[in-house]
Write a structure and sequence with these properties.
Length: about 375
């Protein structure tokens, strides 16, 4: 491994998703290309992959788009997302609900079915699919529950991670060949988990405070995981590699939401307040109060951000927010609660009282 032409020491391939190396202590600050060379074979270069700011006495994990084919170190190449991957809520960090590389629904037919090992009493939650692995969480109110990984090709069980006597086990996200999800309980007996996607082994778990709450899938952007967390409401950020908490921001105390990310900003939709945040600190950039027809403390939705427009819902309206003008561009009346719009090719697809409707993203015209 090299940073520009500087060779790194003690290079060890620990697993299919972790390559470890030692950076020289006297490395000058700056931005470096990362070059990985297989012995006597191919190489891959990631331009401007590593930024060195200062020498610190901590271990840093860098997540880079490189995969290795384990055949005598025969191949290294930039990673490519699988056609049918759906790694998080709404497919991507902006929750667009649209996988542009998937050829479409006309090719779908039932390939397999599988009974999850933790039947519980709750409906199936949102699943995550990436790298040929489907991950599902089974929730059971203070009963036997857990997270299970299945082969996306065959439905065969690959591994499971069990819980017992917990208030909630929540939907997963897949990133960096890892599975991220929240286990909710009371006080500090609530955790953000990171498991290895390939074998289910625990990479780390980090505590947060809660009061018997449920959550949507974590948002993973680069080396940071963003979640709803806090005994009195809030949003928190954790390092995706080692789980250390990076910041916490107070928010209204509501369940079952998660932030969205687009164009350098985090976006949250909680109890009628739409807010934009700095990803590095959680500080509020700006906010908009659209009002909230109260119907309980469960949001069961998140902001959807596409083309400088955010879409949010409640029991009375679907709103389109202009992120440049920082105001609502249009709204549509109706009960859209506990749903997540999707956007494709300039069209918004949304559930209104259980029926699917399509509207123009630009002005809300019903199609």
């Amino acid at each position: 491994m090299y940073l520009n032409n500087i060779q790194l020491g003690q290079v060890v391939l620990e697993s299919l998703n972790r390559l470890k190396a030692t950076v020289p202590a006297n490395l000058e600050e700056g931005v470096y290309d990362l070059r990985i060379v297989n012995p006597g074979g191919p190489a891959v270069v990631l331009v401007a992959a590593v930024r060195v700011k200062a020498v610190q006495a901590i271990v840093e994990h860098l997540f880079l788009p490189v995969t290795f084919k384990m055949d005598g170190w025969s191949e290294a190449k930039p990673a490519k997302r699988q056609t049918a991957d759906w790694p998080t809520l709404g497919y991507d960090p902006s929750h667009s609900g649209y996988n542009q590389v998937d050829p479409g629904g006309s090719r779908y037919a039932l390939a397999w079915s599988a009974a999850l090992p933790y039947p519980g009493g709750s409906p199936l939650q949102q699943v995550a699919v990436a790298d040929g692995v489907l991950v599902a969480s089974s929730d059971s109110y203070f009963g036997e529950a857990g997270v299970v990984a299945l082969s996306a090709e065959s439905g065969e069980e690959l591994w499971r991670y069990a819980f017992n006597d917990k208030f909630s086990i929540n939907p997963p996200s897949i990133a960096h060949s890892a599975v991220y999800f929240q286990q909710g309980n009371h006080s500090d007996d609530s955790y953000l988990f990171c498991l290895d996607l390939l074998n289910g082994r625990k990479n780390w778990q980090s505590t947060f405070y809660a009061q018997w709450e449920e959550y949507l899938a974590p948002l993973v952007v680069g080396s940071t995981v963003y979640v709803n967390a806090g005994a009195d409401g809030g949003m928190a950020a954790y390092h995706a590699g080692d789980g250390r908490e990076l910041w916490w921001q107070s928010m209204p105390q509501y369940n079952s939401w998660t932030p969205a990310y687009a164009d350098g900003s985090l976006y949250a939709w909680v109890a009628g307040f739409f807010s934009a945040h700095e990803p590095g600190t959680g500080d509020v950039k700006w906010s908009l109060d659209l009002g909230w027809p109260w119907y309980g403390y469960d949001m069961e939705t998140a902001a959807v951000v596409v083309d400088s427009t955010a879409l949010v819902v409640n029991s009375e309206h679907l709103y389109a927010i202009d992120l440049v003008q920082r105001k609502a561009r249009w709204s549509a009346p109706g009960d859209y609660r506990e749903s997540l719009p999707a956007v494709a090719d300039g069209v918004v697809y949304a559930l209104k009282s259980g029926l699917l409707e399509a509207r123009q993203l630009s002005d809300g015209t019903l199609l």
